[in-house]
Amino acid sequence: MSDMPTQDRMFFRFALYGFLKNLRFYDPFIILIFRDSGLSFLEIGLLYTIREISINFLEIPTGMFADAFGRRKAMVMAFSSYIISFVIFYSFSDFSAYVLAMICFAFGEAFRSGTHKALIIEHLKLNNREDQKVSYYGRTRAASQFGSAINAIIAAALVFFTGEYRYMFLAAVLPYALNFINLITYPKSLDGSLTQVKWHNFGEQMKLTLMAFVAIFKNLYAMKSILSSAGFTAFFKTTKDYVQPILQSFALSLPLLVAFQDDKRAAIVIGIGFFILYIFSSYSARSAATFARRFTNISVAINFTYLAGAVMLIFAGWASWLELNLLSIVVFASLHILHNLRKPLNVANISDQIESKMMASGLSIESQTVTFLTAILAPILGGLADALGVGAALVGLGLLMLALATFVQVKDQSTRFE
């Protein structure tokens, strides 16, 4: 059986979802947008914390909603919330408005997290292709990363021709509206086994879901897998946007396009830089299964990539600290690639430990752990960046990530590569 039969129409729908989802035109510039609005790094960190705490509060009820009322409906709710947040970001530019926008964004993230992965895994289960989780999910993630590459070019063009950042939020409404249509027309069969719940029994359903969560927590190997995945993702998610001021400094140091304003010069370099970065990331996600086969088993691959990520983060911060901006950018790019190699491995590893009917809730636990850790790490990084500079702050978080490696090591229990 081939990795991705051309007859599999849903693969192309899943890939389209990932491509459109990553057309968040503001993403390559979000730190710069906040700084341009007068926010300190600490305030930026607090916005991230508000977003992550909001997601954490919403994860259980939205995960339960997906399992009980349908994953497709949860995804539709997610994209409605995203669009509202984009409109608020476009319309206002102060801290309090950004807080409201972040909360709306959090609704979207909570409804979406883990849910689309569960849709993919349900599709593979229905077609007896569960053994292809790594390669299949890796290929859909490759489409997402290609979307990010195109996103960077469009975003740079928007900044260059409009001279303003805020139009990127308005432009992002279009691909998200298209994805809304894509998701609402997914087959009903992908909802899996639904538990019929009436609203007056909602509290009872919450109790049953929490009991299922507790059962997952009792599985030591499953929890180790979740902590390893969530820990790496949280450090990556907290630090990845800090490459933007490094790219900006690098762009302004180049003797190129000096006739243009600084924002436009930076936009061109940042756009090209992120385009190249995500092209490589797309290839790396597609190659996840091949990468994994280089190791004895999936656990070795996951443990190795965690340690490698910590070292890369330390090195990227050190290079930025010494104003070796190009070297720091290259290391950050390598970290992005590693993250995309690692993500499909974690999805496959976690899904081996969780029953299919609880997949959306189970993967939401992983997402909850990411949000909890990011909520803690974001203001720490922001405060350190204000006090010591971006480079020193990145080194500090890299050392913390390395110190936690022993606690998140996974052991070989299942998926092996021959």
Structure description:
This protein is mostly helical and 418 residues long. The protein has a single domain, classed as Growth Hormone, Chain: A, CATH 1.20.1250. The protein has 18 helices and no strands. Helix 1 packs parallel to helix 7, helix 13 packs parallel to helix 16 and helix 17 crosses helix 18. It is globular, with a radius of gyration of 21 Å. The N terminus is likely disordered.
Q: Helix count?
A: 18
Overall 3D geometry?
Answer: globular
Low-confidence blocks of residues:
1-6
Reading the helices and strands in chain order gives HHHHHHHHHHHHHHHHHH
Question: CATH superfamily membership, which one?
Answer: MFS general substrate transporter like domains
Count of DSSP strands: 0
Structural domain tally: 1
Alpha-beta content class: mainly alpha
Second CATH tier, the architecture = Up-down Bundle
Mean pLDDT: 84
Helix content: over 70%
CATH class: Mainly Alpha
Oligomeric status: single chain
In the CATH hierarchy, the third-tier topology is known as Growth Hormone, Chain: A
Main sheet attributes: strand count, strand direction, barrel closure: none
Q: Which strand-content bin applies to the residues?
A: under 5%
- Radius of gyration, taken over Cα atoms and rounded to an integer in Å: 21 Å
State the separation between the terminal residues, measured CA to CA. 16 Å
